[in-house]
Design brief:
alpha/beta; Purple Acid Phosphatase, chain A, domain 2; 6-stranded mixed β-sheet; 12 strands
Length: 252
């Protein structure tokens, strides 16, 4: 079985479309969606409907901080553009879409795998896994062999040996990584709709359960169309479109 691990879509229709098509072409027969379906982007309703359809087909779906903010109210630590995007998003969703976001769990554990948006030690606090210290804390908080989380917007892989030795490395797209069974693993697949590592291509990862292998993927998509949609959206901060456009320029 191959599971496509997708996080931080952020209402980016073009990126999600490209990632779903690519994952299916790679043989993905299952999906795990790690939160932040909304916020920043211009197509929140469309993205939520796709996520709902995947969940109805058996996908793992957990809530991110932007999803909770849309459903419950913005957090005081959010910067102004993010807060404005949350309010704009809420006004574009119907009751069933808002209810769907509100009812999503913060984490889901299945078959020795933990799926969560931010971390295992405090899913509701949405603290970032920024390095080995937070990764070790997260791995110590669960007995699951594999933890899959998003929130950081950059692909990363951490591991913890049976002797307590931690390691990390930045993966290369398209290279299969064997996840040795004598270690715990924390996987951050990167962002589908809002990458922040200098590469504008949409990010996700593919986990082959039978082979115990993980492959990080980058998928080019129509960034120009996503930027145009953001600029045309009445009420979203102009800086959001410019930020996505700038990442495209930096990635060239």
């Amino acid at each position: 079985m191959k599971t496509a691990l997708i996080s931080d879509i952020h209402a980016n229709r073009e990126a999600l479309t490209a990632v779903l098509d690519h994952a299916r072409a790679q043989g993905a027969d299952d999906f795990a969606l790690l939160g932040d379906y909304v916020g920043y982007g211009s197509d929140p309703g469309w993205v939520i409907d796709q996520v709902r359809a995947l969940r109805a087909a058996g996908a793992v779906v957990v809530a991110g901080n932007h999803d909770r903010s849309v459903a419950e109210g913005t957090h005081p630590t959010m910067h102004d553009d993010a807060r404005q995007a949350i309010e704009w998003t809420r006004s574009r969703l119907d009751e069933s879409q808002l209810r769907f976001l509100a009812e999503l769990p913060l984490s889901d554990a299945r078959h020795d795998c933990l799926y969560v948006h931010a971390n295992a030690f405090d899913p509701a606090g949405f603290a970032y896994v920024q390095g080995r210290l937070e990764a070790m804390r997260s791995l110590h908080a669960t007995e699951c062999r594999y933890t899959f989380c998003g929130h950081m917007h950059e692909p990363m892989l951490y591991h913890l040996s049976g002797t307590g030795k931690a390691g990390d490395f930045r993966p290369q797209p398209g290279v299969a990584i064997p996840l040795l069974p004598n270690r715990q693993w924390l996987v951050i697949p990167g962002a589908c709709g809002q990458p922040r590592d200098g590469n504008p291509a949409a990010g996700y990862a593919l986990f082959d359960h039978d082979r115990g292998e993980l492959t990080f993927q980058r998928v080019p998509y129509d960034v120009e169309a996503a930027v145009a949609a953001l600029r045309a959206a009445n009420g979203l901060p102009p800086a959001l479109g410019e930020r996505l456009a700038q990442r495209l320029i930096l990635g060239r």
